[in-house]
Amino acid sequence: MVRRWCLPVAAFALVCGAVSGAGLPASAASVAGPQAVQPGGVARQVSPVFGAHGLVDATSTNWSGYASDGGVGQDTEVSADWTEPTGSCSSGDQYSSFWVGLDGYDSNSVEQTGSEVDCVGSQPSYYAWWEMYPGASHDFDNPVEPGDQFSASVTTNQYGSFTLYIRDSTEGWSHTVHARLTSADISSAEIIVEAPCCTQSGGILPLADFGTVHVTNAEINGAPLVEDGATRIVMKAGSTQKDSVTQISDGGSFSATWLHR
């Protein structure tokens, strides 16, 4: 896969602890080295939106989904399930990320884990990863296929320690990553679809056609995600809306549908 280096936007202290994989050989529980395309990152160019029906709360050039901005130290746990969507590749390189995380909505770091659909050529590529942004992302050496059922969570003790968990129940693997980031604000929690970083100039990459991704059992601080407790975000660059995001239904469920690369 052809990748291009994306430089971190800020310096920070990160110490990674154990990385474990349930029921996997040691080789499968390892993580790959830093990648040139960073699947996750902070929200860019967030703008509030006041529609006639209140259907959209904010836009961002690289994020869509839901974010809770409860204030420093308020959001310490986020989790959700989703079904890995099927990518449809056209000409040119395109990328789509699906993840849960803490921070990044109005801060310079994000602690996150999720899955990916990339198009480099005519065939989609699927994988899972974790990241303590602005540090580099790390890929898991496990199979991921469209239709796989994912569960993921990120939690913190509010003193710089984070636990990132991801499970692909369809393929039968899971990982738990323990990491430290003492400079984290712990100021938001989110469940996000993202157009990853970066071109050589640091710009956002084209959004791969992922069809529709369905998110269920979304929770923040152990309670189901609800409209009153989170901001809905749609991805928009200029006048081009890149995807649509449904309202939250009972049990913390919503969907995002691709519209434009």
Question: Can you describe what's shown?
Answer:
The structure is a single chain. The protein is mostly beta strands. It has a single domain (38-258), classed as Sandwich (Jelly Rolls). It has no helices and 19 strands. The protein has strands spanning 15-21, 47-48, 58-60, 63-68, 77-83, 94-102, 110-119, 124-133, 137-139, 149-156, 161-168, 173-180, 189-194, 212-220, 223-224, 231-237, 240-241, 243-245, 254-258. Strands 2, 3, 4, 6, 7, 8, 9, 13, 16 and 17 form a ten-stranded mixed β-sheet that branches. Strands 1, 5, 10, 11, 12, 14, 15, 18 and 19 form a nine-stranded antiparallel β-sheet that branches. A hairpin with a 4-residue loop joins β7 (110-119) and β8 (124-133). It is globular, with a radius of gyration of 17 Å. It starts with 14 loop residues before the first strand and ends with a strand. Residues 1-18 and 22-35 have low confidence and may be disordered.
Largest sheet properties: 10 strands, mixed
CATH architect. name: Sandwich
CATH C-level name: Mainly Beta
Mean pLDDT equals 84
Element string (H = helix, E = strand) = EEEEEEEEEEEEEEEEEEE
Contiguous uncertain segments of 5+ residues = 1-18, 22-35
Our measurement of the CA-to-CA distance between the termini, rounded to an integer number of angstroms, reads 19 Å
Shape: globular
- β-strand number: 19
User: Which structural class should the secondary elements be placed in?
Assistant: mainly beta
Q: What do we call the CATH homologous superfamily?
A: Peptidase G1
Q: Tell me the count of domains.
A: 1
Beta-strand residue percentage: 35-45%
Radius of gyration: 17 Å
Number of helices, where a helix is a run of at least 4 consecutive DSSP H or I residues? 0
What portion of residues is helical? under 10%
CATH fold-type name: Jelly Rolls
